[in-house]
Amino acid sequence: MTADAENQPPMDLSLPRAGAALQRSEPLHITDLLAEVAAAAPGERLSVGELLEALKDRAFGIVLLILALPCSVPFLYGIPQVASLPLLFVSAQIVMGRHRLWLPDKLRARSFSTRAFRQMIAKATPYLRVLEAVSRPRLVMLTRGRIERVLGIFLFIFAFWIFLPFPLTNAVPGMAVAIMAVGFIERDGLLMIGGIVLGSIWVAFLIALASGAWIVFDEALRRLFS
Question: What is the reported pTM?
Fold first, then answer.
């Protein structure tokens, strides 16, 4: 999709199909939700801001997932550190209890072809269905309210470790964030717990590894200069 900076009147996604989809008591799968938004778009172009408004709090999960994917590649340095900065930004907003993802006005005003958006959804749907197959709304209370802020703290911690340019610091925390992102999208509290457990175990392992390395290094220095 090619995005250009175009300002246009806000599109009303709060009524017909998109609004009805977002107001259902049962949360939609992300593929269904995106299809509803694409079908409801009346014009030839859709702005980033309009898309985020239509996705509502689901936007957090989608952005987290997109940013976490490159961070999940083992022994990849540079790109994960760049992606971790917006990850920290998004995680901080979750901790603050924001219900809408904030983006600068210039970025929200950028628009893309509605037709291209629909084509992208059609191509991505088979891959998104694979993720949806292992998730469903479970322990939904863990993805809402004050508990969601606690989950944001874990996301922030994992994003911080991804930011550190050292071996072993990005892949597993990146996978943990990706798992939690799917949990946000699908309202799956069990996946959220799984991501927290995976990331926490790995962070504890890295801390223990760093502590052990420091003890060995310190002991070596003492022997060298004693």
Answer: 0.67
